[in-house]
Design goal:
28% of the residues lie in helices and 19% in strands. The chain has 195 residues and is α+β, with helices and mostly antiparallel strands. The protein has one domain. 28% of the residues are buried.
Length: 195
């Protein structure tokens, strides 16, 4: 088969166009920072409604146990919002502790005390719980896992400033909440437990 000059030139033009098109598509990707680029007080790249308004109420998703107790489900709640993500995070935790509407299941006792809550500039939220307030709650391996991820998912999903959550007890690091789930490192959201 003899290659003609014209056939080679057409292939070269098509190849150059294909490469140019691929480069243009790659260069025009989303330039806004993702969640990992947002920190406290930074509203760059947030979609409308992602940031809490100066005042008023917003819809938030709080994660509770499903009726079966084998996974989490999101419940939409209305909470007072404001410019302070730490205050809004406390409100989220209060809603989680208050419990779900039926048929949902609480994952923490209503006596749970949040000793402190803060967000570091690296995107890690710290939730310090009073261990005495958790005594008597029937934690199994699964219910402890759901309680931990209800806290983590509720905060990460609703607060742009939070990428991971570190849970402590009584102001100190605790290996677990109730003997089952490793709390030695900050935890990222795990929505595989949500249905």
């Amino acid at each position: 088969m003899v290659k003609t000059w014209f056939g080679c030139k057409v292939r070269a033009v098509f190849l150059a166009l294909a490469i140019g098109l691929l480069m243009a598509v790659a260069a025009s990707g989303d330039q806004s920072p993702g969640k990992e680029g947002l920190k406290a007080g930074d509203s760059r790249g947030a979609a409308a409604g992602d940031q809490a308004p100066e005042s008023g109420t917003v819809k938030a998703h709080v994660y509770f146990g499903a009726e079966s107790g084998s996974y989490l489900r999101a419940e939409q709640v209305r909470l007072e919002a404001g410019p302070d993500p730490v205050l809004f995070g406390r409100r989220l935790l209060e809603a989680l502790i208050a419990g779900p509407r039926p048929p949902g299941r609480a994952v923490l006792p209503t006596t749970t005390v949040v000793r402190s809550f803060f967000i570091r500039s690296d995107g890690t939220a710290y939730v310090d719980l009073e261990s005495k307030s958790l005594e008597g709650w029937p934690f199994s391996a699964l219910s402890e896992l759901l309680a931990v991820y209800a806290i983590v998912d509720t905060l990460v999903v609703n607060l742009d400033q939070v990428d991971a959550v570190k849970i402590t007890l009584d102001g100190t690091e605790s290996p677990t909440l109730a003997g089952h789930v490793d709390l030695s490192q900050p935890l990222a959201a795990d929505l595989l437990w949500v249905r």
